[in-house]
Amino acid sequence: xxxxxxxxxxxxxxxxxxxxxxxxxxxxxxxxxxxxxxxxxxxxxxxxxxxxxxxxxxxxxxxxxxxxxxxxxxxxxxxxxxxxxxxxxxxxxxxxxxxxxxxxxxxxxxxx
Length: 112
Hints:
With 112 residues, the protein is an alpha+beta fold. The chain is built from 3 helices and 2 strands; from the N terminus they run H-H-E-H-E.
């Protein structure tokens, strides 16, 4: 648990996307809220979307509505996509352009 908490603290100081995986009831949302609170985004909202009850178009609309304005005055918040794994893989296609692709090597990946 101490290792997990230390890792969360380290991650919260960065501006990288975070994927939290785990079985139902393991605390994914709790850790998402902790990461949000410790990050520089804590003044902006944490938006939770229950993807299992929305269709992909609705989810994409929520993502776009949370984008910064053209003037860039809206602070970026945190988006928690709960149940994104419930979507069919083909339904993820509209999200691809919204999230940057990054290469992750195994040596920089920790599974806790």
